Structure formats: C-alpha cells, structure tokens
Amino acid sequence: MAHPHEEMLRRAYADFARGDLAAYLNSCTDAIVFRVPGRSIVAGTYDKRQFGADLIAKVMDATGGTFRETVLDVVANDTRGVVLARHEFERNGRTRSYNTAHIYRIENGRLAAFEEYPEDLYAFDAAWS
C-alpha cells in the first residue's frame, strides 16, 4: 500500500497534467516556495502566487504550449516526497528533453517546499536558454 503522501503527490501531478493549476496548488501550503536552479529563463524562486502567473506562464510561452511532464516514479514518507519526471517540449525549433527530480518538504499533509534537481544541470540550462 502506498504512503498517503505518495497518493497525494500523484493526484497533484495528475491535476497539473490536466492543466488544473488551482487543484495542484490546493495540495500546497500558502507559504510554499518553488526553487528552480540554474541561469535560464525559468530559474529562480517563486511563491505560490507566482507559480502559475510567472513560472508556468514562462514555461508555456517559451515552449508554445508543447511542454509535457511524464511522472516516472513517486516516493514519499511523512515529511518528504520525491517525484522523478521527464520533461519534453519544443523550443526554438528543437525537441528538448531531460530527466529531473522534484523534492518536496511535506507539512501537515500538504506540499510546503519544492526544489528541482535536474539530472544534468547543463542540459537543463541549455534547454531553457
């Protein structure tokens, strides 16, 4: 039987995949912080309000709406969750893809912090630069 936080993360990512950002954000605390590494257009620290308006808007604009995220695996316990994912999209006439890990801190059954850890930071930055 899966840990309840694993199930919550899978639901949140299914919401995101359907384009339901509000449902995804309902899984988050009001104070969640999203950290994206590197030096590209998507790098930075975002709060809950900025997630859709800034981060996801940049992603969709830069990819012409072609961004796709495939969940490869999810593991979770009482305080942490990890989502292994593959990101694929078209950008500047090229197909881009990379694997990444999303690491969450979980508080009271909700997502409280997000950190992205691309498998290859150089490829990540190149994809978004």
- Average pLDDT rating: 96
Structural class: alpha+beta
Number of domains: 1
CATH class: Alpha Beta
In what range is the share of β-strand residues? 35-45%
Task: Find the count of extended strands (DSSP E, 2+ residues).
Answer: 6
Q: Provide the helix percentage.
A: 25-40%
Q: Could you give the order of strands across the largest sheet?
A: 2-1-6-5-4-3
Query: Residue ranges: pLDDT <50 for 5 or more in a row?
Result: none
Radius of gyration: 14 Å
Q: If classified by CATH, what would the architecture be? A: Roll
Reported by name, the CATH topology is Nuclear Transport Factor 2, Chain: A
Major β-sheet, in short? 6 strands, mixed
Main traits of this protein?
129 residues; alpha+beta; Nuclear Transport Factor 2, Chain: A; 4 helices; 34% helix; globular
Protein topology:
Layout: H1 4-17, H2 21-26, E1 28-36, E2 44-47, H3 48-63, E3 68-76, E4 80-91, E5 94-107, E6 110-118, H4 121-128
Parallel strand pairs: 1-6
Antiparallel strand pairs: 1-2, 3-4, 4-5, 5-6
Overview of the structural elements:
- This protein has 129 residues and is of the alpha+beta class.
- The chain has a single domain, classed as Nuclear Transport Factor 2, Chain: A (Roll).
- It is built from four helices and six strands, in the order H-H-E-E-H-E-E-E-E-H.
- Strands 2-1-6-5-4-3 form a six-stranded mixed beta sheet.
Concise overview:
The protein is α+β, with helices and mostly antiparallel strands. It has helices spanning 4-17, 21-26, 48-63, 121-128, and strands at 28-36, 44-47, 68-76, 80-91, 94-107, 110-118.
